[in-house]
Structure formats: C-alpha cells, structure tokens
Design brief:
By secondary structure, this protein is mostly helical. It has 7 helices and no strands. Helix 1 runs antiparallel to helix 2 and helix 5 packs across helix 7.
C-alpha cells in the first residue's frame, strides 16, 4: 500500500511531465491544467488503494489519458492552436489523439512499448501499429517520399546464412 505522502511526492515530481502530456493531447494550457488537476485528485483519492509508488508514474499518465478520452466536454475543437516555430511539432500535433499520445509517450517520455501499452490500456501490437502509422503520416506530411534516396518499396537484401 502507498500512503498519501508518497503519492504527493511522486505527484510533485511528475507534474511538469503530466502537464506536457496534457498539452500534447489538448493544445491548450487551461485544458492541460484541468487534466493534471483531475489526475492529481484521482491519485490522492485512491492513494490507499495504490500498491506501490514504483508504478505510480505510469498509472498517472494512464489516468490522465483516460480522463482526456472520457471528458470530451473540456475540449474545444474550434480553438486555434498557437503558431509554433517547430515544423515537426506542428506535424505531430496534427496527428489524431491516439497516434499523438503514442508518439509522445514513446519518443518524448522515452517509455518502452509495454509501458506505452500500459498507459494507453491497449495491447503492445496496437502501440507498434500506431507508431508505425504515425511515422508514415509524419513522412507524408513532410513529403519525405520525394527526398533523394527514398525507396517506394522496401529493398530486399539476401543475408548470408
């Protein structure tokens, strides 16, 4: 069992990362803050039920993602995103939620595929599929297919036995 002091310590350590994940999902700081607050409240309410703080970080990300998925009312689809200088970030933020979340957790938060699967509550094969599809979407949005050396079909090479 985890006591409330441990949960509070872990929460304070993860707040910035949780807020960043909320921003990646929502594109709005007020919504990201609301997601983090709801995640913290849920963690503190369930502190006595949490087995160990070693997995709390993944539980927090998973909870935030779950709140994002279920509380659609806090989204404002008509809001405009601020202009960003980073072209890659613009393309990543244009991905659908499920792909953007997988890309963020795997590549920004440096979580393993099993950890991403745990956070998003999906099979590992789904994480792998989403990341592969996201890479294709990002390549297409960058029009990387016209870059020199890009092969339309994979090149098969015989390997010595």
């Amino acid at each position: 069992m985890t006591d409330e002091r441990e949960v509070r310590a872990d929460l304070s350590r993860c707040l910035g990362r949780l807020w960043r994940f909320g921003m990646i999902l929502s594109f709005r700081s007020d919504v990201a803050l609301a997601l983090v607050e709801a995640t913290c409240v849920r963690a503190l309410e369930r502190a006595p039920l949490l087995i160990s703080s070693s997995r709390l970080e993944y539980w927090l990300f998973s909870t935030l993602y779950s709140i994002w998925q279920t509380k659609v009312t806090i989204r404002d689809e008509n809001s405009e995103m601020l202009v960003m200088d980073n072209a890659v970030l613009r393309r990543v933020t244009a991905l659908p939620d499920e792909y953007r979340a997988a890309v963020f957790l795997a590549y920004v938060e440096d979580m393993s595929y099993p950890e991403v699967a745990e956070v998003l509550v999906v099979p590992i094969s789904t994480v792998i599929s989403r990341l592969a599809a996201a890479r294709i979407m990002l390549a297409e949005s960058a029009d990387i297919t016209k870059a020199p050396g890009f092969a339309e079909a994979p090149i098969l090479v015989d390997r010595p036995a």
